[in-house]
Amino acid sequence: MRIQMIAVGSKMPAWVEQGYQEYARRLNTDVQLQLIEIPAGKRGKNADISRILQKEGQLTMAAIPKGNRIVTLEVKGKAWDTPQLAKHMQAWQMDGRDVSLLIGGPEGLATECIAAAEQKWSLSALTLPHPLVRIVVAESLYRAWSLNNNHPYHRE
Ligand SMILES: C[S@@+](CC[C@H](N)C(=O)[O-])C[C@H]1O[C@@H](n2cnc3c(N)ncnc32)[C@H](O)[C@@H]1O
To answer: What EC number(s) does the entry state (predicted)?
Structure first.
């Protein structure tokens, strides 16, 4: 199964790239994680934020391969602990479709993306900066995979 992380924002600092790559590389097994970056619109002084958000939403939707399961990362989504995430991952694999995980930019995800979600995943009640979200998601997926595969990385 391929999991595509489609995230608004590009040109991340090196620590973000390294953190994400560390877990994406480890996950490169029967579950493969890929990152697609959507360039964030320029937020100047008089920027039309709703227009920028709409454009980011259109680009995000266009990056999703046809038929993929869409899961949005939202503060107000469902909080999953690691065993629950591991169960979702198993269900995703059984389902046979690839998964697109959508991460928004500074103002979050466009309405279009939120409306398309089959599942909404919350990492915490805290609003996290979007670069950090990439790393937390990659690590959480790797941990869930290790639980499903009796790999010693995850300990109870
Ligand atoms: C800086 S946040 C956007 C904040 C925006 N005010 C909102 O409420 O969505 C950027 C993106 O990171 C993701 N994100 C941030 N915190 C999160 C959390 N606790 N759980 C899940 N996703 C989160 C979401 O995809 C969000 O669109």
So the answer is: 2.1.1.177
